[in-house]
Amino acid sequence: MKAYLLTTIIFIGISTATFAESVVSKHGLLRVQGGQVVNEKGQPVSLAGNSFFWSQWDRTGFWNEDCVKWLVEDWNTTIIRAAMGVENPGGYLEAPAKNEKKVRVLVDAAVAEGVYVIIDWHSHHAERSTSEAVAFFTRMARTYGKLDNVIYEIYNEPKETEWKEIKAYSETVIAAIRAVDPDNLIIVGCGKWSQRVDAPAADPITDWPNIAYTLHFYSKMHHQWLRDRADAALGKGIALFVTEWGPVGDGKNDPETEAWMKWCKKNKICHLAWAVNDKDEAWSIVKKGASPNGNWTTDDLRPAGKLERRIIRNWSDGNSSR
Ligand code: MG
Predict the structure, then answer these.
(1) pTM, whole model, 2 decimals?
(2) What separation in Å is there between the alpha carbon of 57 and the centre of ligand 1?
(3) What does pLDDT average to over the chain?
(4) Which domain does 152 fall in, by range?
């Protein structure tokens, strides 16, 4: 009888802990402190998760709650990214309501699952649509600014745009967000597909708290030279956030991805793999025919998906709560 009672108490205790300890309830609102993304206790946080594919090209329909739930349960994903396409055909500028609705579905799913979510203005020329970005992020801040789950990424990948211009755009959008939401993390892209982290390191945005900068790497082309540049940027005191990365993609030996993951671990950097999709390209995680709602078998995964699932599932720092 006693043993039965004790087992029951232990069981109830474990169940309660499992439900109560989502990654967001564990870490709370993320912020930047001393060039590092930290939790509400000031401890560095390194999360691992998945970026969804361009909203307007999500033909199979992965942007749904079941898919998020699967990634959280089967991949131990602790952060997702709603990459809302802006400029291209079918993007936000052409179809604002449709794209914004998709973002809201993912944000609501992340909140239901207790994980972080990045609202990403997925653009290569954001400075051409500053007023649209201001209106969009003002609405997002009004709806979601009180939630610990939400992070704003205001410019995915500038290409040839100079930092001076990126900074001016960013300061306008940040001012609009901060007028509504004083504290949630904001991530700012930098030149050359978010590889020129040296530019914000030399001339950071200083008027508002909790600003981090985007670093993107694809292991096939971005090697030690980019890690050196990122190290130098961290050394100057800016916080970096890898909102996208991709492996070599053929599923074979991938020492560069390994080197990058070691780097992320050492520097306690958050990272999200590109992308939740079934398009026939190296960086898609699943094959054509895989369900948009998850429940994937190993056979449904492409080589990138297998590698990324292994990395994300076993990422200990920040994932240990689930
Ligand atoms: Mg807030």
Answers:
(1) 0.93
(2) 30
(3) 93
(4) 2-313
